[in-house]
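Researcher: Here's my situation. A collaborator sent me these components and asked whether they could plausibly form a single complex. I don't have experimental data yet, so a predicted model of the whole assembly would be a useful starting point for our discussion.
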Amino acid sequence: MTIPDTDPWGTHGRTRPGVSEYFRDRADAMRGTAYLLCGDWHRAEDLVQTTFVKLYRAWRRAADPAAGHHALDAYTRKILVRTFLDDARRGWFRRESVTDTPTEHAAVAAGFGATEDRLALLTALRRVAPRQRAVLVLRYWADLSVEDTADAMHCSTGTVKSQSARGLNTLRAVLPAPTNHL
Amino acid sequence: MNETDLKYALRGAMDAAGGRPPMDEVAVLDAAKRAERRRGALLAGGVSATAVAGIAIAAVALYGNGGPGIDIIPAAPGDPTAAVNPPDETAPSWPNGQTDRTAANGPRTGQGVALLDALAAPRPAGFDAPTDLTYDPALGYAGEPRMHEAQFVERVGGTEVWEYRATAPISAGGGVGKLYAEVYTPGSHPGADGCELAESLWGIGGECTVVDVRGTPVGVVTAAGDPSRGFDQWAAHRRADGTVVFVAQARTYPQTLRPGLPQQPFTVEQLAALATDDRFDLE
């Protein structure tokens, strides 16, 4: 693992080597996952920050150079999802702002119909219950297996399958008819 | 919409959401260091239980008490951006009046307790089953390392299939390892047996061998395909009535922040025999 020249984490081979590089490599991807989980970019960044704060503390134990980033990704994702679910259980994510809807980025999408469908999907995803949403995001955005999803969520594979099915049913129920194929 | 549609739709939606400026690495670092200092101070003061809250406070403090994205704005009726509960028609139907998959009390929970007792009891000479360990607070886990759980899986032919899980720390010589059991009532894992059954545990796989236990073939994974998944070895057995039993062991239990065991608690043969033990016949 290469230690970058600029290392604001101040770890240069001392206590937490590689954490800075890992943050730069993975923060964006984790933020995307967090956004799909909570539906709000600002809250997503809070989630990622809390995740990395926790990761920072556990870094020396969690970051096994021999295991590479893949194993660390799983660990980080686990912290992220559990932090989200804990917050969701406390009702934190009900406080969503209408000022940060996906429409602020609408113009960059291809056709008008396709854009509508994509925005509808993000909106519909917010209507799925948090645990079901987490399963959908891990399975179909993060491309995790059923087993890895179960590990991340600290539940059984049976639960992942049933939550996935329920989540898809909910999405189908709340999504309007597509204006184009998704 | 099927799974493939959703996968492509999520990618398209995120593409449409556009790029964002990189997160402020220095700000996150500051929050991490503040949390670390706060935790150290709290631990020194003997109030380690509040350390996790300290992290959250430090993390939230970065943006102050409510940034632009977390203002509380009441949703208008029919507002599509408001989070709502799933429609009633998609609400799951759980047995026994449960509100979710996990049984919080009653006889199913009792079976989970029985599984934990069964798992912790047959420890080899020189090993203990500590009950006072806690998780590393940094992980934010709920509960304790010694745990049990009873979960409804599905209905097969009108019969409820239940899954019971238990984890028991096991200690020796100052080190702590882990024993784990997962038991399914009849109806699960159709057709699988031996190594096929063993390799199905959490999809981990690994090097598997079949051990003969008094004429009964038992699949034992002797080296996990992915050591990061928390188990080193495990045995799987389908009882005559269809009950499926997995019993696993690990030389370490890193979430407890304790050093590992000098050796595995059970030999491969003992682990295989344990999986056939009648104490795991819960129903």
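Model: Some features of this prediction you could bring to your collaborator: The domain at 17-98 of chain A is CATH 1.10.1740 (Rna Polymerase Sigma Factor; Chain: A). Residues 1-15, 94-113 of chain A have pLDDT under 50 and may be disordered.
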